[in-house]
Design goal:
By secondary structure, the chain is an alpha/beta fold. It has 12 helices and 9 strands. Helices cover 52% and strands 12% of the residues. α1 packs parallel to α10 (323-402), α2 crosses α10 and α3 (44-55) runs antiparallel to α10 (323-402). 26% of the residues are buried. The structure holds guanosine-5'-triphosphate and magnesium ion (MG).
Length: 446
């Protein structure tokens, strides 16, 4: 597949993703931040990888897909108002055909082995002859009924002035699903490059939607989406064209009581329900009822329906302009915002820790200070109390000692000899008196 040029915005964005990836995987990116980002953007590393891969896809393909002979190539002719493909009654489109807006008419082929070749075309698409030259060239390159070699191309890229195709949006014609295996494989391989789909359903084919091979593609698309391989694809913007309503039998097979119109209306309601069942996100206004081959004055309803379809398609094309770039820029922006939030959150958390620790230390210090203050106060009070007790006790003792009973009890305790019985030798006598007073004081203090 063609890669965007080095200087292209896609490439620059891809480099940005690569740098971000390195930062996110480095040790500097701490676990707290990683955890934060996992919650805001689950699986962010895998998604970045997918973004990088998706940005390398140059094509914004609106892929026209459906069963063989459903009318895909006819639809594209109608859209371009040019008969660039020849309608065939049997399986015809053999390869992916990308149709893009380009000032000059040009065709580039890509072989299955990746080799590309420019096919020179000297004509103007605005002239009938120029249109025929292009049709004949494409017949040779994309139509298996004309050339067996056309199967060897992986894709054929055709450009000419198509004003309604904006940006790098392209319309992609695909081989029918249910055709020869090898061509179906090309469609499946191309699915991840699609940003939108137009599914064409042949209402006249036996069994209608029940037997259609379309659900195979739809299932593959759902799987690709689940694997994040089509991040820019919006399943609500899928278009279903139910085609070939003119081929529905009006031969009296229907109930006797109901008219052909009633029967057609019943089929239409059932078909819409079948489509909603297999693609629940489809919008009712994106299911169209058409006769692509016989769109003329007689089929006014079909022509009106085609106009509505063109409006829807133009809206989708406009919505898909630079879709890949915008989608991935939005993801990068969200990721960076969440990283910033995560970093701020981490900073706030660590700041809170420091502040909390500081507050705790202050609290402890205040507590210690308070304890010291209380201790000082207590100590003083205690000393005061002791002093008071001592003072009071001293007073009490002094008063007691001053009384006759006191003097008698202190100086003549029962277990000691009476002072009157002690021989009076002044030094020894005064020593004895001091000893008896001390004995009393000791007794008071204990
Ligand atoms: N009766 C009828 N035939 C139609 C209608 N639309 C397309 N056809 C015819 O159906 C045949 C197949 O049409 P294509 O446009 O080649 O179909 P396709 O889906 O591109 O087919 P492949 O490329 O082989 O998968 C052609 O002969 C068309 O003319 C329609 O509304 N009614
Ligand atoms: Mg075709």
């Amino acid at each position: 597949m063609v890669r965007p040029p080095t200087e292209s915005p896609q490439n620059k964005l891809s480099i940005l993703f690569e740098e971000l990836q390195k930062i996110l995987e480095s040790d500097e990116f701490d676990d707290g931040l990683r955890k934060y980002l996992h919650e805001s953007n689950p699986d962010y590393l895998r998604k970045i990888e997918k973004c990088k891969k998706d940005l390398l896809k140059e094509d914004h393909g609106i892929v026209v897909a459906g069963e063989t002979s459903a009318g895909k190539s006819t639809l594209i002719n109608k859209l371009l108002q040019k008969r660039i493909f020849k309608g065939r009654n049997k399986e015809s489109t053999s390869t992916i055909c990308k149709i893009r807006n380009s000032e000059d008419i040009k065709i580039i082929t890509e072989l299955l082995n990746g080799e590309t070749e420019i096919i020179p075309l000297q004509c103007s698409i605005e002239t009938e002859i120029g249109e025929k030259i292009l049709r004949d060239t494409l017949k040779r390159l994309t139509d298996m009924t004309s050339s067996k070699d056309s199967k060897d191309f992986r894709s054929v890229d055709v450009g000419f002035p198509i004003p309604f195709l904006k940006g790098n949006t392209i319309i992609v014609d695909t081989p029918g699903i249910g055709g020869s295996g090898e061509v179906s494989k090309k469609v499946m391989e191309y699915l991840p490059y699609a940003v939108s789909f137009i599914f064409v359903v042949d209402v006249g084919s036996a069994g209608g939607m029940q037997n259609d091979r379309l659900p195979e593609i739809l299932r593959s698309i759902i799987e690709l989406q689940l694997e994040d391989e089509m991040p820019c694809f919006d399943p609500r913007e899928v278009i279903f064209i139910t085609n070939k309503w003119d081929t529905i039998a009006r031969d009296g097979d229907s109930d006797e009581d109901s008219s052909d119109e009633d029967q057609e209306e019943k089929t239409w309601i059932e078909l819409k329900q079948d489509i909603k069942n297999i693609w629940p996100s489809v919008k009712e206004e994106n299911i169209f009822k058409m006769n692509l081959k016989h769109m003329n004055a007689r089929t006014v309803a079909s022509a009106k329906e085609f106009e509505n379809f063109q409006h829807s398609l133009k809206r989708i094309i406009k919505g898909n302009e630079n879709i890949r770039l915008l989608h991935h820029i939005r993801f990068l922006d969200e990721l960076l915002k969440n990283m910033a939030k995560g970093i701020n959150f981490g900073l706030a958390l660590s700041k809170r820790c420091v502040e909390e620790q500081k507050a705790l230390t202050n609290k402890h210090q205040a507590k210690i200070k308070d304890l010291k203050r209380k201790w000082k106060e207590g100590e003083r009070k205690l000393l005061d109390d002791i002093q008071k007790i001592i003072k009071n006790e001293a007073h009490r003792v002094l008063n007691y000692m001053s009384t006759d009973v006191g003097k008698e009890t202190i100086l003549n305790p029962p277990e000691q000899k009476s002072l009157t019985e002690i021989r009076y030798i002044p030094i020894l006598f005064s020593k004895e008196i001091r000893k008896r007073i001390e004995m009393y004081v000791q007794g008071v203090l204990h």
